[in-house]
Amino acid sequence: MIVVSEIFGVHEYIADVTRRFAKLGYLAIAPEFFTHAGDPNAYGTVAEIQQNIVAKTPDAQVLNDLQVALVWAGKNGGDLKRVGITGFCWGGRITWLSATLPQVRAGVDWYGRVIGEKTENSPRHPVVDIAADLKAPVLGLYGAADTGISLESVEQMRAALAQAAPKNPAAKASMIAVYPDAPHVFHADYRATYPKYGWEKCLAWFKKNEVA
Known about the structure:
single chain, five-stranded parallel beta sheet
């Protein structure tokens, strides 16, 4: 199981989520994808992290690092026929991208952005470019009260999956769940807004897709 952090990197919350998977029997890894750009903790605002860390972390580099992590996992007891990936916010978008890799069996995206401006470092986005190329089914978990990710964009992703479904089994098998009262980062149990949505659905998804 690969656990992909939000823009804040692998802080204690992400480490704890990774331990939860490990206690369930997974070989769970939370790679430090931002190492090349620097330490998100060195900056005091989200805007500074976006500018100095996230914007300088190319998608291609992240996917390459993920594959390196899988090579390590294969040499250390991991079953590379049952690779799962889950990610939060920034990591949710990375989950969609990672599901285009042949090594991934299933993914769970927690409130990841699905539309956005294309840049040199982020040339592809889930709604426009990813649905037709999925190699693994993805469960997308979103909150209707999320002020950062519009329901319109979530519905665009749902429509993209439906359009790709006739020719792509992974797109057909993918699913999006929207929790009516959930805000952004609703799985982050270190925040006061934590309502415990989605975790059981996440685990059931991996079991259904034979990652468990």
